Amino acid sequence: MARAVRVRGGRSVGCVVGARPNFVKAAPVVQALIERGVDVRVLNTGQHYDRALAGNFIEQLEMPWPEHDLGVGSGSHAEQTAAVLVGMERLLVADTPDALIVVGDVNSTLGAALVAAKLGVPIAHVESGLRSGDWSMPEEVNRVLTDRLSDLLLCHCAEAVENLLAEGIGGDRVALVGNTMIDSLFRLIPSARARKAVERHELEPSNYLLVTLHRPALVDDPARLAAVVRTLADLAETLPVVFPLHPRTRARMDSAELPLERLVLTEPLDYLDFVALQSSARLVVTDSGGVQEETSALGVPCLTYRDNTERRVTIDLGTNRLVGVDPAALARAAAEELARPRESVRPIPLWDGQAGERAADAVVALLDRRDDTWQRSHAA
Predict the structure, then answer these.
(1) Is 276 left (phi over 0), alpha (psi -120 to 50) or beta?
(2) In this model, does residue 9 exceed pLDDT 50?
(3) Which of 51, 185, 253, 254 has its Cα between 20 and 30 A from that of 247?
(4) pTM of the model
(5) Which of 48, 68, 125, 214 is catalytic?
(6) What is the pLDDT of residues 246-260, one digit of tens each?
(7) Which of 8-17, 36-45, 308-317, 321-330 has the lowest mean pLDDT?
(8) Which domains does the chain have, with CATH numbers?
């Protein structure tokens, strides 16, 4: 198990994680910063508190163990964000880093960025510039506000840079570094496949459909959830449908009368098992942003069950297809994908396993600029 690395007296950077994808995206940046002699503190808000969704990631990703865990847990958006605000302020006041890295678009991201901005701590935002244009999505609010607060915006594709330029954000604040999540994916895929999750679930490679659905707009609506589950059950007549259940989704499904016996339902999978199942799937259905990216990197066809996506690059250059929140459209799209052979895809630019290195270089440059500003102010 990796432990926190501290280099007392050197430059210090905090890195805030809290939800499942944050660990995967942050690990390559943290590792590269440590290699550059930076004192890195990993701060876990505990927004995902189930060990299957959080703790195992830290071990598998060989990431420094968090020095603090705020234990925020579940709750409304206001409750989660407020708990992060209170806890992060206490931590940053007690031990102020030279910069703070925040990741993605969850409530922990925005809460930590707000605290850092008010304390004058420079902020680096991993996965900046993504836009869905849908302000009914809490993630859209979080990512836009975090970008406005951040001093360094680390983008994973050219489209994200263009989105920021359209909002008047550019220059030294923006760095196109690539997708750090794909760094973790590529590094761990051999280990993931070695665990033989496909065989353990009695599946045949390229002969099953993998599903992840968890967004409140879908699973909190009984009619919408029932409709998509019935469509998945119909698809299960053609090939097995494997459905790892997010705790939120399980709670909603258990209270409804649905044809669940046709589906292969599992508990939440740890990262390596999920990657293994994802890499060998014939088709993936999801409402997750990260899965859209991972399937595109793996060359696995993906149907996104949403009306919009902030990851347009996965449609333009990857394997993703947006089908809307329409069970009939999902059924048609699945039938079309299953009727044609899987095609090889070209890599998305900078999704090459080196994004963490480029992101770390950009963070070090931010620290250099901060040092130069301090020196000039004290020389005057």
Answers:
(1) alpha
(2) no
(3) 185
(4) 0.91
(5) 214
(6) 777 787 777 677 888
(7) 8-17
(8) 12-179+351-379 (3.40.50.2000), 190-339 (3.40.50.2000)
